[in-house]
Amino acid sequence: MTDTAQSREPDAARSAVDAFDADRALATLQVLCAPDMQGRAPGTAGHDLATGFLAAELTSYGLTPVLDAFAIREVMRLTAQPTLRVAGGRLDRDLVHRAEFAEHPRSGPMPGPVSGTVAEDAGAGEWAALATVPQGNAFAELAEVLAARGAVGMLTAQNADGSGFLTKRVQGPTPVGLPVVAVRPDLLADAVGGVLTAHVPLVRVPATGTNIVATLPGGDPEARPILLSAHYDGVGSDPERHFPCAGDNASGTAVLCEVARVLTSAGPLRRPVVLALVDAEEIGTLGSGHHARALREAGVEPDALNLDMAGKFNGKVAVELGPADPAPRHVIAALDGAGRSLGIPLYAGTVSSDNRRYASAGFPAAGIGFGAAHYHSPLDGPERIDPDALRKAGRLVLETIHRLAAQN
Ligand SMILES: [Zn+2]
After folding, report:
1. 4-76+205-406, superfamily in CATH?
2. How far is the CA of 124 from the centre of ligand 1 (A)?
3. H helices of 207-280, where?
4. I need a surface site. Which of 110, 201, 300, 393 has the fewest CB within 10 A?
5. From the CA of 191, how far away is ligand 1's center (Å)?
6. Residues 106, 110, 115, 120, Cα dihedral to 10°
7. Sign of the CA dihedral 50, 400, 356, 135?
């Protein structure tokens, strides 16, 4: 691989990479993970607090961030702490929300408590305990059949993760016509025959998303920009349990902020750099979709780097490239060269994140993903973030940006 950047401006690239301060990134991450940020789900006060904090952070580096608001048709939100009690049968107790039962993203509305006996073949007034869960349309059709029989709702199995939590799901296709609650499989089996009373007030409300976009001008006004993006939204806290959303993706957000500080404190690169803290990734990569459209409409075609999950290093870093055809060879070359020069092994892996929106828009795009720990769980907290992973992410991104900027 030709070492273009190193031969052109080794000092600038090296000093930028070395200027990345992981302690600063960690401090930014800790602010984003605090309880008052409420897990940064769009439509919450905590989310808007995060937006304001990040805009102020970029401003403090001398950037002029633009807040680009967009409408979100609906977000799912629990209006109160969910409760579920089984009386009689083998259980005869209250279950613990998030550890033993959870809301289901396709549930119909449940404004008040719903009660009925749990049965495998449910009839009138009963909850249907589903042994297998049909996907897609078949799920809605099953709900119709059960509703016609007079069933009060459906209970589906959801396995706990390695730490004993039912992963928070905040995105789902259209709701069905019956209440649906997810229960841990062993408890679901034990609930059969008991009378189950559940109140899981999951509502769908419109919200506003806000992308935070700042541009560093380049030395060559004709040059295509380099885009660095990271989503700052999170899955949101439960009513009575905080979700810090540290790895996903306060880590990428904090790295982007520190990269912004490093880039603004040095002289301009040949190419402009667009820094985008995008919103609403967790509910369908809506912010990056909005941003990609805006770039296309403006006739801008950046090389896009997206960072999602930078809080844990598992010995190598996943890179997902797009579009497939034509393959973004210059982005591959820059990343590959950066990884080699910094001793950070890269591999072609799945990074299902905002990079796909930019790739779908036709931009040469790379999704960069370090490790995930406690995905969509309340345990995804700042205490489980490895500062050295933040450091590696920052260095990799800075080196890649310098290499891209030096390409012809
Ligand atoms: Zn994420």
Report:
1. Zn peptidases (3.40.630.10)
2. 42
3. 251-265
4. 300
5. 34
6. -10
7. negative
Q: Is 85 within 8 Å of 76 (Cβ atoms)?
A: no
Q: For every residue of 122-140, which 3-state class applies, written as one string?
A: CCCCEEEECCCCCCCHHHH
Residue type, 176: V
Which tokens belong to 5? 């950047």
Task: Check if the beta carbon of residue 346 is closer than 8 Å to that of residue 1.
Answer: no
168 within 8 A of 193, measured Cβ to Cβ = no
CA distance 132 to 116: 20
CA atoms within 13 A on the CB side of 206: 3
Distance from Cα 343 to the centre of ligand 1, integer Å: 25
What are the angstrom distances between the C-alpha of 28 and each of 34, 56, 249, 359? 10, 12, 12, 29
pLDDT for 13 equals: 84
CB 370 within 8 A of CB 248: no
Q: Could you list the beta-strand ranges (E) of 225-340.
A: 226-231, 273-278, 303-307, 317-322
Task: Give the C-alpha separation, 178 to 349, whole Å.
Answer: 38
> pLDDT tens digits, residue range 221-257?
899 999 999 999 999 999 999 999 999 999 999 999 9
pLDDT at 299 > cutoff 90: yes
HSE value, Cβ hemisphere, 13 Å, CA-based, for 185: 7
Q: 381: CA distance to ligand 1 center in Å?
A: 14
pLDDT at 14 over 90: no
Q: What digits encode the pLDDT tens for the residues 96-114?
A: 999 999 999 999 999 999 9
| Domain boundaries for CATH 3.40.630.10 within the chain | 4-76+205-406
Query: 82 CA to middle of ligand 1, Å?
Result: 25
Q: What is the mean pLDDT of residues 336-340?
A: 98
**Which of 51-60, 117-126, 278-287, 370-379 is predicted with the least confidence, judged by mean pLDDT?**
370-379
Share of the chain above pLDDT 90, in %: 91
4: confidence class by pLDDT, cuts 50, 70, 90: very low
- Is domain 81-200 annotated with CATH 3.50.30.30? yes
Alpha carbon of 249 to ligand 1 centroid (Å): 5
Cα separation, 280 vs 266, in Å, equals 31
Which of 403, 407, 405 lies closest to 6, judged by CA? 403
